[in-house]
């Protein structure tokens, strides 16, 4: 059993066919990849941060997609709030984050396109990334053969791009990740 990562958009009517879902899905390894910043230790650098440096691309928008406040999360935090002031702070923070992410789809798509363009020219991304003490990704495999679809990082980015294009074509303007 593992954590799954799903896309979510501001278009509640967005529906994928089974075929489209196959073209858009992200591997569980990608979900692990997105959480690496919270897992690695000893001043090691998460792979996404390393990739940002290798490609000279600002990847902060991708991380930002993880922070979109889910209603269930807000409700839970409100239940734990000590007083009305704390409740208001929770609501204000959630609203601030939503505003920061609002209308991000074009920027995220541009970031993913840039990553694909630059990484497709590298033959050995897996060799360029510094190893970590706790490799939950099977990095040697996951970051190899970027241009070949084999449940690897390259395929995940191309699937991500296809979803963003699909969402944009269907009127979405904001996109974020939801974990299930």
TrEMBL record:
Residues 91-125 form a coiled coil. Keywords: Coiled coil. This is DUF1877 domain-containing protein. It comes from Bernardetia litoralis (strain ATCC 23117 / DSM 6794 / NBRC 15988 / NCIMB 1366 / Fx l1 / Sio-4) (Flexibacter litoralis).
